Amino acid sequence: MAEPRTEETRENRRTSGPNDPTPDLAGVRDDDMEPHAGLRYVARLFKVLALLILLLLIAEIVLQLWRAGLNAVPTLLVDATQMIVLGALLWGAGDLALMLIESNHDLRATRILVGRLNGKVQRLEAMSFGPPTPRPGPPGAPAPRPGAVGSNVPLPGATPPRDGPP
Of the four, 2, 50, 79, 163, which is 20 to 30 A from 12 by CA? Predict the structure, then answer.
């Protein structure tokens, strides 16, 4: 088995190893690598705002206790609860934005891998010995329609897939 390349440059991230027979058509576009810079900045902004609210809460507690003493405790409890909830919501929104970025990376990686697998399957089918034979269905099932999804019955006059660009 070939060792995967370890250098992390844009060009080397496009292939999985030196002996990978993946065609150039299944490469990774530059836009697929990091298109979410703006969303990442929004996530940082939300987290910074949450920390700023926490600092404002500490400052308010200190100032109110210095000015009014223990008489400010009921007001401080209400204000502290509101500020903590708002800060938690902002922090959670930042984490949610980061989670969306990561899930989109997983989706893009899955699309790339499925595209590569599809290309490999098409090359294997092109190298097979003749057209695929129809699989029999369960007893009493209707015959598969030609060209239907999941059926191996080709359309009349259909040509087998070619390897390479059209």
Answer: 163
Residue with tokens 């400010």: 72
- How many angstroms separate the CA atoms of 144 and 15, rounded? 39
| pLDDT tens-digit series, residues 94-149 | 999 999 888 887 888 888 899 889 888 888 887 875 565 666 667 777 766 665 66
Contact 90, 47 (CB under 8 A): yes
- Ordered DSSP codes for 45-97: HHHHHHHHHHHHHHHHHHHHHHHHGGGGHHHHHHHHHHHHHHHHHHHHHHHHH
Q: How many whole angstroms separate alpha carbon 77 and alpha carbon 67?
A: 16
* pTM of full prediction above 0.70: no
Give Cα 85 to chain centroid, integer Å.
Answer: 29
pLDDT digits (tens, 9 = 90+) for 72-97: 899 999 999 999 999 999 999 999 99
Positive or negative: CA dihedral 59, 60, 61, 64:
positive
Segment (H or E) for 32: helix 30-33
